[in-house]
Design a protein that fits this description.
Blueprint: H1 2-62, H2 69-84, H3 88-111, H4 113-117, H5 119-154, H6 158-164
Amino acid sequence: MVAAISGLWIIVAVLVVLAAALIGIYNVLVRKRIRCQEAWSQIDVQLKRRYDLIPNLVEAVKGYAAHEKDTLERVIKARQQAIDASGVVDQAKAENFLTGALRQLFALSESYPNLKANENFMQLQEELTSTENRISFSRQHYNDSAAVYNTAREKVPNNIVANSFGFKKQDYFELEDAAAREVPKVSF
C-alpha cells in the first residue's frame, strides 16, 4: 500500500514537472512572438512616415517636371500598393516596387537644376533619407526578432508545443532586388 502511494506521488510529481515545462515553453514562445509583432509594428510606423512624405515630394517635383507625369504616377501608384499591402511578404514586394519608383523620381532631379536647388525639395529629400535609415534599422530588428522566435520554435521540445498550439513560422522582411537593398541615392 505504501509503495502504491509512493508510486502515485512520483507519477503526480512527474506530471506536475511536465505541465510546468509545457507552460514555460508556451510562455517563452508567446513572448518571442509578441516581440516579432512589436518589431513589425515599428516597421509599420516608419513606413507610414515614408508614405506621408511621398505626396509632398511628388508635389514639389510637379512644379518643375510637369511633363514627367509617368514617373510621378508610378510613384503614387507604388505608394498606394505599399499602403494596401498586408503581411510581411506582400509588404516587402510592395516596398521593392516603391523604392524603384522613388529612385526614378530622384533621378529626375538631375535633369532639373532648379529642382535640385529647391529648399522644400531638399528638406523632403533629407527627411526621406532619414526615414529610409529608420526603416532599414526596423527591418533588421524585425528580422532579428523573427530569427530568435523561429529558432526557439524549431528546437526540441519547443517544436512539439509550437506545433500543438499553432505557433507559425515568422516570415522575414527581405528585399528581392539587389539594387533595392541600397538606400535611394538622394545627393544633390
